[in-house]
User: Fold this.
Amino acid sequence: MFSQPRATEHRDGDDLLTAGLGLAGLRAMTPPPFADAARPTPAELRRRALWANWRGIADLAPGGGYGELYGSTAQVPGREFSAFASIPGARQPHRVLVQLPDAFDADKRCVVVAASSGSRGIYGAIAVAGAWGLPRGCAVAYTDKGAGTDYFDLDAGQGITADGTVAGADQALAFQPAPTTGSGVAYKHAHSQDNPEADWGRHVKQAAQFALATLDAQLPQQAPFTFANTRVIAVGISNGGGAVLRAAEDGEPWLDAVVAGEPNVLAAGHGARSLYDYTTEAALLMPCALPALGLPAAPGADAKCGALAAHGLLAGADLKAQQADALARLRAAGWTDAALRAGAISVAFDLWRAVGVGYASAYGRYPHDGHPCGYRYAAQAADLSPRAATDAERAAWWADASGIPPGAGVGIVDPHPPGDLGLAGLRCLRALWTDDGADGKRVKAGIEATRAAPPRAGLPVVVIHGTDDGLVPQAFSSAPYVAMARAAGRDVRYWQVRHAQHFDAFLGFPQYAATYLPLLPYVYEALDRVDAHLDGRGALPADAEIATVPRAGQPLAPLHLAMPR
Assistant:
C-alpha cells in the first residue's frame, strides 16, 4: 500500500507546524528564499510549501485574530513520515504524511486525519488539522487525495520525487502522466486519469492507516495502535471537507468523529448541484450578472454580455437588460445574492474557468493531450503564448503551486482565437454538463461516481458553512448533504455562519475584512467540542445559525464571531 518512505526531524529552528517561521515569518510578503533557485533542497522546499499553504488558507493579517483570538502557530518539535500510497486500481499514487510531535500524548492516543483543500499539495491542511492537533499532542495525518502539486514538465520529461525535488521520468515520481510525450505541463488532479475525487474517502482512510502503522513503528512500547484503541478525528475544508464526509460513509467503525468546513460535496437530491454544474454556469453568466447587483464590471464583461446574447444564452436588447437577465438566471438556479457578491472574487481571479477546465479532464479521465474542449497547460510568455518552463520555475512548482493552474508560472492555453473573449471554450465546458454527447456522458459519469452517501450510523458529524460562500454555495452542497443525511436517520449537526465566505486568506484585503468573518475559528471550535464529547465532557454542538457581526475595520474580537454557547 505504501512506497517511497521518508522520515525527517524538525527541531532547533525548525518545527512541524511552521518550519521555524512562526507567525511573523508566515506573515512575510515574500516566500522563504532558495539558496540556488534552480536546485532547492528538500528542507527549503518544505519550508516554502508550509509558508505558501498557511497563507493560502488562513487569515494571518494583523487584526485578523489568528494566533491571538483563535488558532496556533506554536513551535512543535517532532518528526515527519511520508510515503506514496496506492488505491487499488488507480494509475497514480497519492501522498500521505504523518507529523508526530515529540510531545505526543501517550494517554490520549489521538490521530487527526485531514485531506488538503482544493487541489493543494500534502501540506494543504496544515492550517486546519495541524494547527489544532499538533499543539494538543495528537499525531496528524494528511493526504493530497490524488491531487497536489506534483506537476510534470512534458518538454523536459521531468516530474517531482518524494522529497519535492525534480527528477527525470526514469525515477520514482509522485505523478507521471501517460503519455509523457507532448509539450507543456500535466498535473495529477486533472491528468491522472483516475478521477481521484471518486476515491477521496479511501484516500483519507489510507492516511489514517499510515498513521497507525507509523505510530506502531515509532512508539513500539505503546503498540499496537489500532482503530479500536486510538481516537481518529477527520477534519477538512472545501474539497478536504468533502473528502472527510466521503470517509464518513465507511461502514467500519474506524472514525470517531468528522468535522467538515464549507465542504464541496455532492449529495443525492434535496437541491444538490455538482461543482462542475454551477462552476461552468458561473463562468459564463456571473461576469455579466454582477453589475446588476451594483458591483463593478470585470474587464471585458460588457462585451461578453453581448456575445452571450448573440449566441442565445442571454435575452435583452441592451447591456442593462442582458445583465438583469444573467442575474435572473442565476437566481433561478439557486444562487443567493450573498453568494453572488462573494463569487465576484472568483471572477476576478479566473477561478471559474480554472475549475471548469481542470475538472472536465479529471471527471472524464482525459489525458493531458485529450481535453474535450482543446485546453492544455504550459508556462506562458507575456503574450500568453506557450513556452518551455525554466529550471527555476520547474524547481519551485512543488512548493509554490496551488495544485490547479493558473499559478506558479503555469497558465491555461486556450485553443480558441483571442477575439472570441474565451467564450467558445466556456460554452464547450458548459455543454459537457448540459448536452448528451459522448464527452458529456463521460464527464457526467465521472461526476456521478463522486456522489456522497449518508455517514455511518452513530458517527458524530459536524458540518460548518458560511452563508455567503460564493465558491461552494451551501445551498448546493452542505444544505443538501445535511438534509440527505437526516432523511437517512443520521444525527448530523449543522452550523451556518453569517458573513463568512469561502476564502479566509482573502480577508487580508481590507474590503473583504470589513465585510466577512473567517470560518476557521468555527472549525477549531467544533473540533474542541467534538473532542470534549468523546472525552465525556460535553454534548455535541447543537445546530446553529450564527449571527456574526462584521468587523468594519476593527480588530477581530469575540463579539464579531458570536460563537455559539
